[in-house]
């Protein structure tokens, strides 16, 4: 299946249908919403296994479960959960996540698609690119600007594939994961009921970022699956290929390559599972998810490259497993936030976020400690005579919580006086 999907750019619909029939499309979601009630750890293990067999199936599945279903599960109204989420979790409808635009990739705040409220409807106009499952999905989680600039003016909506005004391009031709369909969306006066707004106006950025935290674990798992498949392919070659009268597994330099590949795969796997367990435990996991995606994707690219190297000329031929994995691996360093963005997220967690107007100073950088007597308010009491001014000062200090019930002798030396 993986070879056929890659060679023919054939959508992996049969595999998606099989996953739906087996009840996997709602794996980590509660049964009362139509899901299976399993853990997020079980979900990422599933994505890894699927991706090891076929990365296109892995990302198609992860996009539906991790990106399209979560906003409705976490922020959707009762109507939205019943009308849209439940059939998605049953596998009756496939989902997509429409965030990226030509000028809004890593910079989500640059989204230009607009949604204007007109009576009881939102009218949406804009352009989305690189949308996984587009053209196959029944339900799109779409982000548009409802007011204001930057990230504060974004909102999330439910768009259905049969909504008038939704135009979808032909599938885009890609370097890898060719069995996962990717298209552009064109929104031309697309009119949807106002109750398709997810959460409140302006919640879009928060919904997107929380969703991407979990989505990155899906891509980390996909990358682990690719890296593991590359490791297996290399080991087969090492055991079967003979040179200089013995199989390649007898050459120390190649044995070390195998050892390094296994170590990278296992490290990426354990980091991904650790982040998933944090999520299952209700703990913060944003930095860990970014670290898992960073480590796993770079492991996938490195292991796939080493697999091609070990397979030699055979690995470079179009149609070989190593060659396909090499092409499939690269995208894991790009989507769900580039690895450069993952480093920004991790650094922000460790060192604090950088302010936009602070000359690059960290928002959480250590500041000069406040005076022991408190922050100066720079208030000058000018009215009345000296006695009135002192009385006004005392009243203001008492209002701020200063205690004047305990005094000390006037001739107490300053070094001995407690403040």
Structural class category = alpha+beta
Major sheet size, sense and barrel closure: 4 strands, mixed
Order of helices and strands: HHHHHEEEEEEEEHEEHHHHHH
Beta-strand residue percentage: 5-15%
Distance between the termini: 78 Å
Shape: globular
Average pLDDT score: 92
C-alpha-based Rg, rounded: 28 Å
Strand order of the largest sheet: 1-4-5-8
Number of DSSP strand runs: 10
Note poorly predicted spans. Answer: none
Number of helices: 12
Question: What does this protein look like?
Answer:
The protein is of the alpha+beta class and 419 residues long. It is built from twelve helices and ten strands. β4 and β5 (154-160) form a beta hairpin. The longest helix has 37 residues, at 204-240. The protein is globular and about 105 Å long. 45% of the residues are buried. The mean pLDDT is 92.
Kindly summarize this structure in a few lines:
This protein is an alpha+beta fold and 419 residues long. The chain is built from 12 helices and 10 strands.
Helix and strand arrangement:
Elements: H1 2-8, H2 13-21, H3 40-53, H4 55-75, H5 78-90, E1 95-98, E2 114-118, E3 121-132, E4 139-145, E5 154-160, E6 166-168, E7 182-193, E8 197-198, H6 204-240, E9 242-243, E10 246-247, H7 252-280, H8 286-311, H9 313-316, H10 321-330, H11 339-351, H12 386-399
Parallel strand pairs: 1-4
Antiparallel strand pairs: 2-3, 3-7, 4-5, 5-8, 6-7, 9-10
Helix pairs in contact: 3-4, 3-6, 3-7, 4-5, 4-6, 6-7, 6-8, 6-10, 7-8, 8-10, 8-11
